[in-house]
Amino acid sequence: MNQNYYRQIMKLTVPIILQNVLSTAVNSADVVMLNYVGQAHIAAVSLATHYSSILFMILYGIGTGVIMLGAQYFGKKDMRAIHLVEGIALRFSMGCAGLFALGALLFPQAMMRVFTHDPELIGIGAQYLSRISAAYLCWGVIEVYLATLRSVGRVGVATALNTFAFSLNILLNAVFIFGLFGAPRLGAMGVALATSVSRALELLLCLVVSARSRDVKLKLSAMFESNALLLKDFIRMALPAVLNDASWGLAFSMYSVVIGHFLGSDMVAANSFAHLAHSFGTILAFSVASGGSILLGQLIGENRLEHADRAAADLMRLTVLFGAIGGVIILAVRPVMLNFADLNATGKGYLSVMLLICSYYVMGAAVNTSLIAGVFRAGGDSRWGFICDTIDMWGYGVPLAFLSAAVLRLPPLWVYFLMCTDEFVKWPWVIGHYRSKKWLKNITRDDLYAAE
Asked: Which residues contact 4 (CB under 8 A, 6 or more apart)?
């Protein structure tokens, strides 16, 4: 392994690992604290947060567009282009976040009925959604600015901002869920309130960091600046990434629809713990994919394509290693989670097997995410991943889930096992595309300002 690239990848990756650990810790805190409130609250929040997951996928895709273009233009030393890309991204992110916030505020019960018919879960989840709508708007701005910082290598600053928000979120979760320090005892609604407050303060900190930055500024006025060529490139490259992440996120949410409608509340509650374990198991692999994509983008922007190819190979070795470690982590926490989870005997039986399945499922997710969302996008190749994931999830995963649950009426754990084959089905095509090197392209332009 090239030690130089190894060190560079890890330098970018370590802060992202911290950020992702804290992000998952927030979700863990939600489950842990709601465990003392009741199974219905855990299940309702688990279902309601799928809308946050879908929005995250969209914003992640938009942020990917920022990193794809920003990292390469940073390699080219063109900060003006990065500023224009940030403005373009803000238009899209604020539009999407606004739609989600409006839906959560005005139609929360209808949104919950997508996932369940249980009146109790609908009631709890609807209150949660109405109170988290403000966080969606803050998120739309925050994610674009943090992606801009990452694109120029300032991963540590982005991580520090997230660290503050996530740490505050955990603290406020305890305050509002249990009614500490004289605050009202809000249960599931306390999770939503804590998220909204922490995101609002994180946005305020972003504005402070921006004011002190010499070049990477957060200006909402940038939304009204444009460059026809950059807009065209952003749409051409970011739109497939957005559609890819939204399509994948929506398809993954369909798994919860299947679980919620056909497999019962015990399976819903068990799945919330299994999803948490899966999130922890993929932290290392997903983080190295994010850090590696920034380095690859900068190398490609400098037109050092052979170096980028070697760095991609090092990135893949780290991904496989971290994927294996992730599986071991899940197996290690399995006894602890089974002892802790406040589930009935049926729910614990489900969870026990689901964790075993998750322990190897993380490897499939690690390799595919590293290549599709990391390596390919670093070279501006987001369209291929969109096509691959869409065919895999909507042509294979989702139909198989509904067929096995609604038509064949297979036992719940068999349905879950079949849903967890989606990542491995696409391995031959994903790995083949990586070896073809068709993704290795410099996407920067020399004529951006020719029309001025």
From this structure: none
Q: What is the largest CA-CA distance in the chain?
A: 69
- Torsion 311-16-319-436 (CA) sign: negative
Rounded to whole angstroms, the Cα distance separating 342 from 160 reads: 34
Q: From residue 308, how far is each of 34, 145, 304, 315 by CA, in Å?
A: 45, 26, 6, 10
Q: Which of 35-44, 87-96, 349-358 has the lowest mean pLDDT?
A: 35-44
CA-to-CA distance for 418 and 72, rounded, in angstroms?
39
User: Given CA atoms 162, 167, 173, 175 in this order, what sign does their dihedral have?
Assistant: negative
1 — pLDDT class (breaks 50, 70, 90):
very low
Q: Which of 211, 229, 230, 227 is nearest to 219 (CA)?
A: 211
Separation between Cα atoms, residue 239 and residue 88, nearest integer Å: 12
Q: What is the pLDDT of residue 452?
A: 54
- Summarised one tens digit per residue, pLDDT across range 63-112 is 888 988 888 888 888 888 898 999 999 999 999 999 999 999 999 999 88
Match 């190749």 to its residue by tokens: 381
CA-atom Rg of the chain in angstroms: 21
Give the sign of the dihedral formed by CA 173, CA 178, CA 182, CA 183.
positive
Give one DSSP letter per residue of 160-215, joined into a string: HHHHHHHHHHHHHHHHHHHTGGG----THHHHHHHHHHHHHHHHHHHHHHHHH-SS
The long-range contacts involving 246-251, CB below 8 angstroms and separated by at least 24 positions, are 246/54, 246/57, 246/58, 246/61, 247/386, 247/389, 247/390, 247/393, 247/394, 248/57, 248/389, 248/390, 248/393, 249/53, 249/54, 249/56, 249/57, 249/58, 250/54, 250/57, 251/393, 251/394, 251/397, 251/398
Q: Is the pLDDT of residue 2 over 60?
A: no
Instruction: Residue 23: count other Cβ atoms within 10 Å of its Cβ.
Output: 18
> Quick one: CA dihedral 266, 269, 271, 273, positive or negative?
negative
Global pTM value: 0.76
Q: Which two tokens stand for residue 374?
A: 């990391």
If phi over 0 gives left and psi between -120 and 50 gives alpha, with beta otherwise, what is residue 409? left
Q: How far is residue 451's CA from residue 218's CA, in Å, rounded to a whole number?
A: 26
In angstroms, rounded to a whole number, what is the distance separating the alpha carbons of residues 47 and 115? 7
Cβ 241 vs Cβ 58: under 8 Å: no
> Exposure of 452 by Cβ count < 10 A (0-12 exposed, 13-18 middle, 19+ buried)?
exposed
In the chain, where are the structural domains located? 3-436
**pLDDT, average across residues 164-186:** 82
Q: Which among 404, 408, 413, 64 is positioned nearest to 245, based on CA atoms?
A: 64
How far CA 396 is from CA of 166, 246, 423, in Å, comes to: 35, 17, 10
